[in-house]
Structure formats: C-alpha cells, structure tokens
Amino acid sequence: MPSRAEMRRLFAAMALALLAIGAGVGASLDASQAAARRSGRVPLPPMGPSLRSSVAFATAESAGTIVIRKDEKALYLVGGEGRALRYQISVGREGFGWTGTVKVGDKQEWPEWHPPAEMRARQPDLPEFVPAGPYNPLGARALYLYKSGRDTQFRIHGTNDPSGVGFDGTSGCFRLTNTDVIDLYGRVGVGAKVVVI
C-alpha cells in the first residue's frame, strides 16, 4: 500500500494537474500535457522505467507462478527451461512483511482504492475511497491477492512515483513501476499462484 508521503505527493500532483487544466494554464506544461489539456483529458502520471530482466531461475514451481523474494526486493515470474522474468519491487516496511502462498483472485486496470480500516486508523488523513483513474495510488494496474477464496487486502500494484520502487516502504503490498506492472498484468491470469518468501 502507498505510504503517507506518497499519498500526499499523488494528491498534490493530481490537484496541480486538475488546476492547470481547469484554469487553462498551458505555458508551463510540456507538449503532452498541453495536448491532454486541449483534449480535456487529465495527463497520465509518469510510467517509470522498466526494471525487468530475464534471468536464470532454478525452481520447482511451474511456469506462470509468481515468486516474491522479499529480501531481494524482487518478483519473479517463472518461465520455462530454468528462466524467469525478474522485476524490482518495493516490499512491506518493518512490521508489515508477510510470507505465504496466495493466488491472484482479481485484476484491475487503473484500479480504485479503498484503504483498509487498519491503515486509516494508523493514518487518519487517508480518504475512505479513491476512485479509479490515473492518479489512484495503486498505479496503472493491480493484482488482488486471495487466500482460500478471500481477499487478503494485499496487492501487487503499480505506482505513480517511479522513485517509489526498490525499498521496504509499503504496508504489505508489492509495488512495481507502472511500466512493469502493465507488463506483468498482461502475462499473469486470475488464478495464478503467488509464493511470498
């Protein structure tokens, strides 16, 4: 889940983008933002770089399984013939790490976000709901993790802050750049096994 600082940055960026569009301010916008303003669309947030690579990966897990190695801050999508795609991720900060085996129970593009009650208790300034769209803190895509048919409230998701990947900073979710989560989303189906170690 996004941190408080990331939430503030995201809401500030969204407010500035909407203000610029609503006020017709185009001089300071780059070409793509100016084009988005003219068309009445909110510009997309930064997608971030791809931090994905194809690597040798020995495992007994079958192709299509996601293996998350928290200590490495890496998510592996198992391929065939001893290979995997490795994505750099952020993982749960101290006190928010977990391990286990779950499944992808749902997938959403530009998902809406309902911060869990426990998170809002820790961070009272969080909203109860953030609608779907490009400035949602879950980024461009989200894979919803289920155990025994129930939503765990944990996600594999993107981020609108490309610098927000590669460290211990979430509330238990696994965060990729938007570029990488879009790639992963296209490769993984509902029902895919996810092993977190």
Query: For this entry, what is the oligomeric state of its chains?
Result: single chain
Low-confidence stretches: 7-30
Report how far the terminal alpha carbons are from each other: 18 Å
According to CATH, what is the topology? Answer: L,D-transpeptidase catalytic domain-like
Folded structure, characterized:
By secondary structure, the chain is of the alpha/beta class. It has one domain (47-196): L,D-transpeptidase catalytic domain-like, CATH 2.40.440. The protein has helices spanning 4-23, 31-39, 117-122, 178-187, and strands at residues 52-56, 66-69, 74-78, 83-88, 91-92, 100-109, 141-147, 150-157, 168-170, 174-175, 193-196. A 9-stranded mixed β-sheet has the order 1-4-3-2-11-6-7-8-10, covered by helices on one side. A two-stranded parallel ribbon has the order 5-9. The two termini are 18 Å apart.
Give the SSE layout.
Blueprint: H1 4-23, H2 31-39, E1 52-56, E2 66-69, E3 74-78, E4 83-88, E5 91-92, E6 100-109, H3 117-122, E7 141-147, E8 150-157, E9 168-170, E10 174-175, H4 178-187, E11 193-196
Parallel strand pairs: 2-11, 5-9, 8-10
Antiparallel strand pairs: 1-4, 2-3, 3-4, 6-7, 6-11, 7-8
Summarize this entry quickly.
The protein has helices at 4-23, 31-39, 117-122, 178-187, and strands at residues 52-56, 66-69, 74-78, 83-88, 91-92, 100-109, 141-147, 150-157, 168-170, 174-175, 193-196. The chain is an alpha/beta fold and 197 residues long.
